Amino acid sequence: MVGIVAVGGTYDVAAGLPFQSHLRVYEPLRAFEPHGLIGDAEDPAAADRQEMLASLARACEPRYQPFPVGPEHVRALDVTDEAGTTRTLFNPGQLGVRALLAAEKLSNAVSTDLAELVVPGEALERHLDDLRTSDGTDRLHTRTATWGVPLAWFALFSDEDPVQVFRSGGRIRNCRLCAGIGEARERLQFAATSLAAVVPEMDLLTELADLSEWLDGFDDGAAIALDYGQVAESVYPDDSPSDLRLGIECLAEADMTGAAAAYRRLAGRWLPIKQLARAS
Questions:
Q1: Which pLDDT score, from 0 to 100, does residue 62 have?
Q2: 2: closest CA among 210, 167, 150, 156?
Q3: DSSP bridge pairs for 223
Q4: Helix 240-252 vs helix 181-198: angle between axes, to the nearest 10 degrees?
């Protein structure tokens, strides 16, 4: 188990923006050799705030710029292991690459004309040129979800993992779960093996396999953190990790009543959040 030692800062939010949650892998410096890290390490909350403000600024510019410009943010997180050793781990923002992936996803979801309106071809080519000149790591360290946390993400965590809550103005702005990557891999393996034995056709299995493949590419000394973001205000304290594990254990034991109860708790917590995406 890892423990969060020092993460400060205040989260600012902008009304009207979709709820965003992030799953981030933090690695030791050795994992970024030979190129090293591009950018100065900073507090995760400060990096989140700067990225949000920069995004809003781009949207307000007379000359529309859909892609991020300027230096990348590098988040630093201090954690302690079971031996009490404190280490600083790092998460490269890679916002440029993630923006490109989002643009590709958009182009596959809407008409060509609409995609061109949101992401002009000229801006896309310019952004691709910028990425070609970057010598940063090619492993994506961050995954993002809107309007809720994917259930598969909760398989990485336990109710025994440290959680840090960020408050500002009397409200919860974010909460963060953190676990060592070794523990997270073991939990994923347990969940996948248990489900495969009883419900091999379940969609959750595909998501777990995708997560497992992603985590395999990182240093064994890494940690993984789930930042709930604004949705934390609606769900904290959140029992989703334990509810998911209990549901999987009940399925493995053929306890359909217990599994159904765990699912109802998860659905009751997260379906109202997902429905906000379609609210007017």
A1: 64
A2: 156
A3: 26, 180
A4: 40
Residues 6+ apart with CB under 8 A from 227: 21, 22, 23, 24, 44, 48, 174, 175, 176
Question: Residue 65 corresponds to which tokens in the numbers above?
Answer: 């710029």
The first and second tokens of residue 132, run together, are 């070609």
- Cα of first residue to Cα of last residue in the chain, in angstroms, is 42
Q: Which residues of the chain have pLDDT under 50?
A: 4-11
Instruction: Look up residue 140 and give its two tokens.
Output: 């994506």
Residue 133's pLDDT is 53
- Residue corresponding to tokens 């510019």: 61
Alpha helix (H) residue ranges in the chain: 44-60, 95-109, 112-118, 121-132, 151-154, 181-198, 203-215, 232-235, 240-252, 256-275
Tell me, what's the pLDDT at 11? 45
The two three-digit tokens of residue 228, written as one number: 């709930």
Query: To which residue do tokens 């393996």 refer?
Result: 189
